[in-house]
Structure formats: C-alpha cells, structure tokens
Amino acid sequence: MGESDRQLANAVAVVTGAGRGQGRSHAVALAGQGADIIAVDLCADIDAIPYPLATKADLDETVRLVRAAGGRAVPVVADVRDLEQLEAGVRSGVDELGEIDIVIANAGVVAIGDTRTRAEPVFDAIVDTNLKGVWNTLAATVPSIVRKGRGGSVVLISSSQGLTGRGGDGSAAMFAYAASKHGVVGLMRSAANAYAPHKIRVNSVHPGGVATPMILNDFVVRQMTENPNPALSQTLLPDASLVEPQDVTDAVLWLVGPRARYVTGVSIPVDAGHVVM
Length: 277
Ligand SMILES: NC(=O)c1ccc[n+]([C@@H]2O[C@H](COP(=O)([O-])OP(=O)(O)OC[C@H]3O[C@@H](n4cnc5c(N)ncnc54)[C@H](O)[C@@H]3O)[C@@H](O)[C@H]2O)c1
Description:
It is built from seven helices and seven strands. By secondary structure, the protein is α/β, with parallel strands linked by helices. The protein has one domain: Rossmann fold (3-Layer(aba) Sandwich), CATH 3.40.50.720. Helix 1 runs parallel beside helix 2 and helix 3 (83-97) packs parallel to helix 4. It starts with 11 loop residues before the first strand and ends in a 7-residue tail after the last strand. Belongs to the short-chain dehydrogenases/reductases (SDR) family.
C-alpha cells in the first residue's frame, strides 16, 4: 500500500486501554492506515476489579505490533482516572509524535458475575474508569487537536449496556457498568456540540460481547457458568453472542476516516442486534 492509499497518513492518534483486547486492535489498525500511536494503558490491576488487567509487557507488545504495521508508537503508562497523570503522559507522546488528530477513548472495566448488591468499591472503580476516565481523556487530548487546527475525530467506546439495561441483575457492578456506559453517550453528545466549531467529530461505538480478556477470563467464565445471565448476550444474528475485536475496529476505522466526514453525535452498535431486540 502506497502512502497516498493510507487514509490516516501523518495523523497522530491516542488510544486508551491499548495494552490488549480492542484497544490493541484499534491501535494496530490505525497504524496500518498510516497513523502514529500514543498508546495509553494502566498496566496494573485495580483492587476492586476481579480479573487481571493488561501488563507493561502487553503494552510493549502493542507497541511492537504498531511498529510492525508501519506506525510510530509511544507507550504511556497512565491511569485514565487521574487527569494530571493522563495529561502528563499524553504530553510526552505529543512531544515525540506531534499534536493529536484522533482519540479512541477505549479503556474500561467491568465486573460481570460479581452479583453483590452492595459493593461500593466496585461501583466506584467502574464509574471512575468508564465515565470519568472518558471525560479525563477528552480533557487531556482535545486541546491538542484544537491547537493543531485541522479538525479531528474522537470515538468513545461505550457498550450495548450504554443503550439498554437488558441483563441487569441488581448488582452494584451491573448498575455501575450500565450507568457509566449510558453516561458516555451524554459525554459524546455534549462533546459533539462543544467541539464542532473546531471541526472535531465525536461519536460513540457500542460493542456487544467481544472476545477479549475482559470477559474471557477465569472469574467471568466461572461466574457465568454458575449463574448464567442469557439476557446479557442474546443477539438477533445467530451464532454471534461474541463479536471479534476487528469487528469493532472496522466501525472505528470508518468513523475516524474521511468517509465519515459528516458523521458526528451518533451511537453505533456493533452487537449482532442485541440492542434492537
Ligand atoms: N469485551 C466486551 O465484551 C465489551 C463489550 C462492550 C464494551 N466493551 C468495552 O470495550 C472497551 C475495551 O474493552 P476490552 O474488551 O478490550 O477489554 P480488556 O480488558 O481486554 O481491555 C481494556 C484495557 O483497558 C485498560 N484499563 C483498564 N482500566 C484502566 C485505567 N484506569 N487506565 C488506563 N487503562 C485502563 C486495561 O489494562 C486493558 O488493557 C472497554 O471500554 C469495555 O468496557 C467491552
């Protein structure tokens, strides 16, 4: 593929939660289209979250894959819950790669299978990461897009749980997850209005179940086997209770590219028809 065929040539993209899973898939695909990547991840576990998060080795592997796809990459170990830390990390990436064009606010946590109704630390960890973390990501990145002055595209990764409460089981974890992911739609709509004068488009993507370590881990698999919650994963399309990270990446690639130049303020499910049931 020649430089002119790559629709994101010379773009700089920030991807949070880039250490593995969907974030890694987005980062590598953006690099394949010519973007350089500021790859952010916590690279540590969160006490209240009952499965392991990505490690520094995972983030380094993402960086290796981004470079193999032809992009430059700066790994940033930062917690999206901490605005100052995130800002400092993003600044280090901008110092190396230049001002930002694209943001994929993807970092998130869940605690499917933690059925406790009173679990404040779990509620707080989920809302702080999935909702405040997305607002922090906007705050840490959009000023750079504005400084660059050529517009940009921001994609906020929500969930089918940002558009429906199906599968709600009364647990603190599910309340927090659905509330945080619905909240992301509010952030997206408000940001689409706020940033339109700068030609910055803001949209949200709503995956159904995706085959990543967030749900393919010992805790969730054991809990879902012992306490099945089929309403969570029902889909209209057959044999699609889990989609692949690449399916979500394909929607992200369209949203950040020139073919979506007049698309802003919308929510796109990639869920095999879960939300519409
Ligand atoms: N997997 C699914 O079924 C599914 C479905 C719908 C939506 N989502 C959403 O998609 C996004 C990506 O999830 P995934 O499936 O790739 O899961 P994942 O657990 O594989 O990846 C999430 C990444 O975010 C990082 N992260 C978590 N908390 C962080 C923090 N505070 N600061 C910085 N990084 C942090 C993790 O280390 C990990 O690398 C999340 O927002 C998730 O809620 C996932």
